[in-house]
Amino acid sequence: MIIMGIDPGFAITGYGVVKYEGNKFSPVKYGTVTTKAEVPFAQRLMQLNREICALIEMYKPDAVAVEELFFNKNIKTAITAAHGRGISLAAAAGCGVEVFEYTPLQVKQAVVGYGRADKVQVQQMVKAILNLDEIPRPDDAADALAIAICHAHSHRLSQMDYR
């Protein structure tokens, strides 16, 4: 199974593509899609959509997992990030890929085993799970890989027969 994780944003959207077979992970590709502040708002949204669609076409994931937003302080930041999240969801759905959503707590629980883990703990586990030499950079890409790992674990559990 090929899974694309997306850490949605507006200026920076992280993506991570992993292969999950037989309870083993392999990193495929990770990075960020960035938009420039001087570009008009609508054009930035269009660019984000185009680039996410291009990544989906290139890597042909079986599923796209997108992190739900959690903001408790800056509403303006939340609103701009929500635009990026909406574009990410629409791009994946428009490409015909099944979309799944996970809260930050679910991602931390699936990757670290503790829902209140800090960013460094999540990054260290992503590095270990994917057998990487170093923590993926930038942080947005590492977060996207964590979201993909979360989906693999959640999908595996949903496929188990508990009878």
Can you characterise this structure?
It is a single chain. Helices cover 49% and strands 23% of the residues. It has helices spanning 41-59, 75-94, 104-112, 119-129, 139-159; strands spanning 2-7, 12-21, 24-34, 63-67, 98-102. A 5-stranded mixed beta sheet has the order 3-2-1-4-5. A hairpin with a 2-residue loop joins strand 2 and strand 3 (24-34). Helix 1 crosses helix 2. The two termini are 25 Å apart.
Instruction: Give a short account of the largest sheet.
Output: 5 strands, mixed
Instruction: Supply the CATH superfamily name.
Output: Ribonuclease H-like superfamily/Ribonuclease H
Number of helices: 5
Q: How many DSSP E strands?
A: 5
String of helices and strands: EEEHEHEHHH
Q: Quickly give the structural class.
A: alpha/beta
Q: What count of domains describes the coordinates?
A: 1
Calculate the mean pLDDT score and round it: 92
* Shape assignment: globular
Helix percentage range: 40-55%
Q: Biggest sheet: strands side by side, in what order? A: 3-2-1-4-5
Which features characterize this protein?
single chain; 163 residues; alpha/beta; Nucleotidyltransferase, domain 5; 5-stranded mixed beta sheet; 5 helices; globular
Produce the secondary structure layout.
Elements: E1 2-7, E2 12-21, E3 24-34, H1 41-59, E4 63-67, H2 75-94, E5 98-102, H3 104-112, H4 119-129, H5 139-159
Parallel strand pairs: 1-4, 4-5
Antiparallel strand pairs: 1-2, 2-3
Structure in a nutshell:
With 163 residues, this protein is an alpha/beta fold. It is built from 5 helices and 5 strands; from the N terminus they run βββαβαβααα. It has one domain (2-159): Nucleotidyltransferase, domain 5, CATH 3.30.420.10.
